[in-house]
Write a structure and sequence with these properties.
Chain A: The chain crosses the membrane at residues 12-37, 74-96, 108-128, 158-182, 203-228, 263-287. Chain A: Residues 71-286 form the ABC transmembrane type-1 domain. The complex is a heterodimer of chains A (298) and B (411). Chain A is mainly α. Chain A has one domain: MetI-like (MetI-like fold). Chain A is built from 13 helices and no strands. Chain B folds into two domains: 2-140 and 299-344, Periplasmic binding protein-like II (D-Maltodextrin-Binding Protein, domain 2), CATH 3.40.190; 144-297 and 367-408, 3-Layer(aba) Sandwich (D-Maltodextrin-Binding Protein, domain 2), CATH 3.40.190. In chain B, 53% of the residues lie in helices and 13% in strands. Chain B has 21 helices and 13 strands. The radius of gyration of chain B is 23 Å and the shape is globular. The termini of chain B are far apart. Classes of the chains: A mainly alpha (298), B alpha/beta (411). The interface between A and B is medium-sized, with 31 and 31 residues.
């Protein structure tokens, strides 16, 4: 078959236009990942070294109490944070969808925390939760002498305080996304349900929620990436303390990258995190590809 | 062409300082992390001294040591090094030396006789394989025992504690008086500071070196070191509930306001007392250590000189290395910084009583010891800090802590 010169030119132009993007993906994304992988298998300290040591850094990583604790913390935080954000965000969206007064103002208030840097708000949360001068002290001054709320200095409860503060920050975003989804649902469905005499909660659970599927999936992905990235909340609220009780992988990596001049161990940690993300995404991608195969275009 | 030249003139007028600088003497760009009030005043002593030699000081202050060091290393690796960069008196820059990325200042060091007046501990850090790669500028002692005279009076403590038992007795009295006995900021590095103080004062010089320098597993697993760890943990029971996450200066503020009795902290705490208009010896006391043989722990800052072939820059590096160690500059700098000079042959009459006490102790070479950073590499030091902070905050059997430390320091 003879190619049409005009068509050939057109595809050449298209590829040329795409070239910077392709190069960026190859160098900036794939390249850096491969470079990290290489460093993680070397004995680099302050500078990258070429000496190959196999999986020694990974072995060291998984013998490190602090790293194991940070993985545990991340799992606990991930489950609680995602569940609480989804629930609160959904309830807020339903609430605003009832055509309440001053909807715009309420929406702004709920979304406001997400617009602020956590480095600043984390400090405020730290003060609020500090038993010496925060909520505990305030309630005690109101006359409840025995009131205690000292989770932030408690080894076993400190992670919950970080969950509380970051749920406060992110649930507004969940609300905004789900509200958009709710607004996209056809009013006719509500009318039909009313005629059939179905209770409102039942409509939400059995009809609206399934229809919100794509929005919920988006929210889930956004929240999951926030979990993996968790760093600023911990640093500004507890600095990983008390002791090492609120350590998270991202902080472990940053500490070893800069403070401890051990880029090999830090790279091994980031590779493990990357694998975790891929493991989370794989089932999702699989489900989507199955859905594509079954549903044709969707 | 004319337009271009006009533009250049305009630019030159705008950046008057820079251009004028170029005409007068070598420009020196310095990366450091001294950003607080007292620190900025201290760094100005160096920049003024450099300006009087006809050079131009370009200040690149980066907040936080870790950040500043990674900026410096990135710039060195990236081929755009500063003239001079700050590091701690430690193994932080050893990798950089080994990669051949620093200029040595042997010429200045030999001319000025650094070997004669630098403490051995500091000399061992700046001298790598016979060459001088860094100019030390100060000595910080991280394990002073500070106490509030007002709190001591309220608790009925008549005399300054002279040994560890007396310190514990004083802490008990403070607790009985309803005060916070030990003001502590619950951050890993501050727990490390307390550990260092206990190791030096309870364990003594020999054990200190066996653990920190020789990383001797036998000593770490031994009874004497176990006693050190138990004493360290015992101090934890005198800390108030609000301590986790507290900054060191907030802990010092507890002493200033008389709410707490004792704080174990570096001599930079003096800056906080001074800012609150308190006078050493009158409002607060400073104890360097217990007994006439207690070690004086050395911590401090150095400047390194990244490799360059530019003759102007090399000249600037040599001038800087020389002037920062001049006796008068040393005293003025240390007074503003809250440290003591790296040389003991200076006029101490203008220094406060705590610094004078420190300088007097420094004259006895047998009492000089480095802090953990001097003997351990950043990675080992960090691993040790992780174990110590976990032990301080959780109930872990002391035998497990000994085993963990021995393991962490093995490689």
């Amino acid at each position: 078959m003879k190619a049409n010169p005009k068509q050939l030119l057109r595809s050449l132009v298209t590829w040329t236009a795409l070239l910077p993007m392709v190069a960026t993906v190859l160098v900036a994304y794939l390249g850096t990942v491969l470079w990290s992988l290489k460093v993680s298998m070397s004995n680099s300290r302050t500078f990258p070294s070429d000496e190959f040591v196999g999986l020694a850094q990974y072995e060291r990583l998984f013998n490190n109490d602090r790293w194991l604790l940070s993985l545990e913390n991340l799992a606990l935080y991930g489950v609680l944070f995602i569940a609480a954000c989804m629930l609160i965000g959904f309830l807020l969206a339903v609430f605003i969808d009832q055509e309440v007064m001053a909807e715009g103002a309420l929406r702004t208030i709920f979304l406001y925390p997400y617009a602020m840097s956590f480095v600043a708000t984390g400090l405020v949360w730290q003060w609020l939760l500090n038993p010496g001068n925060g909520i505990q002290q305030a309630v005690r001054q109101m006359g409840f002498e025995d009131f205690t709320f000292d989770w932030i200095i408690d080894q076993n409860k400190v992670m919950y305080t970080i969950v509380i503060a970051s749920v406060w920050q992110a649930s507004g975003l969940v609300m905004a996304l789900l509200l958009a989804g709710l607004r996209g649902i056809d009013g006719e469905i509500w009318k039909a349900a009313r005629i059939d005499g179905i209770p409102t909660w039942r409509v939400y659970v059995s009809i609206v929620l399934p229809m919100l599927g794509p929005s919920i999936a988006t929210v889930f992905i956004l929240l999951s990436t926030a979990v993996i990235k968790l760093f600023d909340a911990v640093v500004s609220m507890t600095q990983g303390g008390p002791g090492t009780a609120s350590e998270v992988p991202a902080k472990f990596i940053m500490d070893h990258l800069f403070g401890r001049a051990n880029i090999a161990l830090a790279s091994a940690g980031s590779i493990v995190l990357l694998l975790t993300v891929l493991a989370l995404l794989a089932p999702l991608l699989y489900v989507r590809s199955r859905a594509n195969a079954a549903g044709g275009d969707k | 062409m004319v337009v271009l030249r006009k533009m250049a003139t305009a630019l030159a007028a705008g950046l008057g300082v820079c251009v004028a600088a170029h005409a007068v003497g070598p420009k020196a760009e310095v990366i450091h992390w001294w950003t607080s009030g007292g620190e900025s005043a201290a760094v100005k002593v160096f920049s003024d001294a450099y300006t009087t030699t006809g050079g131009v000081w370009v200040d690149t202050a980066v907040a936080l040591g870790e950040q500043a060091r990674s900026v410096a290393i990135n710039r060195i690796v990236g081929g755009n090094p500063p003239t001079m960069a700050q590091f701690n008196t430690s193994k932080q820059f050893l990798d950089v030396v080994e990669q051949g990325m620093l200029n040595n200042v042997d010429e200045v060091a030999i001319r000025d006789g650094w070997d004669k007046f630098l403490p051995e501990t500091v000399l061992n850090v700046v001298k790598v394989k016979g060459h001088y790669y860094a100019a030390p500028v100060n000595i910080h002692m991280p394990t002073w025992f500070w106490y509030s005279k007002a709190a001591f009076k309220k608790a009925g403590i008549a005399a300054e504690p002279k040994n560890m038992d007396e310190l514990f007795a004083a802490l008990d009295k403070l607790q009985a008086a309803g005060l916070i006995p030990l003001a502590h900021g619950g951050q890993p590095w501050q727990e490390n500071t307390i550990f260092t103080a206990v190791l030096a004062n309870v364990g003594g010089t020999e054990l200190y070196l066996k653990v920190m320098r020789d990383r001797d597993a036998k000593a770490i697993q031994g009874e004497a070191f176990k006693n050190v760890l138990l004493t360290y943990k015992r101090l934890q029971s005198y800390v108030d509930k609000g301590s986790p996450g507290r900054n060191w200066n907030d802990a010092t503020a507890l002493l200033i306001t008389g709410k707490a009795g004792v704080q174990i902290m570096g001599d930079w705490a003096k800056g906080e007392f001074t800012a609150a208009r308190q006078v050493p010896g009158k409002d607060y006391g400073c104890i360097a250590g217990f007994g006439s043989k207690s070690p004086y722990i050395i911590q401090g800052d150095v400047f390194v000189f990244p490799k360059t072939t530019n003759p102007e820059q090399i000249k600037a590096q040599k001038v800087l290395a020389g002037l920062m160690l001049a006796p008068a500059v040393q005293v003025e700098f240390s007074n503003k910084k809250g440290s003591i000079p790296v040389r003991t042959d200076v006029d101490s009459s203008k220094m406060d009583i705590c610094a004078q006490q420190g300088l007097a102790i420094m004259k006895d070479k047998s009492r000089q010891l480095g802090n953990g950073e001097i003997y351990l590499n950043p990675d080992q030091n960090g691993a040790l800090a992780d174990i110590l902070t976990a032990y301080w905050n959780k109930s872990v059997p002391v035998e497990k802590v000994q085993k963990d430390i021995a393991n962490a320091l093995k490689n």
